[in-house]
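Follow-up to my post from last week.
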Amino acid sequence: GENVEQHPSTLSVQEGDSAVIKCTYSDSASNYFPWYKQELGKRPQLIIDIRSNVGEKKDQRIAVTLNKTAKHFSLHITETQPEDSAVYFCAAGGDGLTFGKGTHLIIQP
Amino acid sequence: DGGITQSPKYLFRKEGQNVTLSCEQNLNHDAMYWYRQDPGQGLRLIYYSQIVNDFQKGDIAEGYSVSREKKESFPLTVTSAQKNPTAFYLCASSFTGSQDNQPQHFGDGTRLSIL
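User reply:
Got it. Predicted complex:
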């Protein structure tokens, strides 16, 4: 089955700086890679996703890149703000999704 | 997503007791999923269903059972065989595309604890 590794587990950045979270996956058949943001005690919210036929996708301050050859994908958040503080999960899959263990992003004022 | 309703929000289970978690969606989604979330473990797939009257085991199905009698409903039963049921349970749903995966949308979750 699929195995997804996510790093780092905790990331602290100064407000206004950029944050990068990286994930690797094992199953070359995986073709869908979403990213979710989860605030404490709340449901995960989809923030961006990318499919295997695309190398990069951007939505305002958030971007995701995918390297199919190396089997890794990354989330980039620019100009970080306090409301970006949350746990972020990557996932990979086909019919079902396998999630990474999450990254706790802390934005320092 | 207001279209996915999980109940109850908090649930307590006694030893040897089965409990059922409810998940209802009015988004006309074909597929529904159950995940378990433990601290530091991310989300792990318990069961999923892509069509009524059919479902598949996920990575951690032991000690759980599901049914999919209606498109809108996908209840999860935590049986007494599940020895460590304390966790946050999340239900999700999505459309099923012929070639592309569709985004999964989550409910607010049910927090299950052992008495």
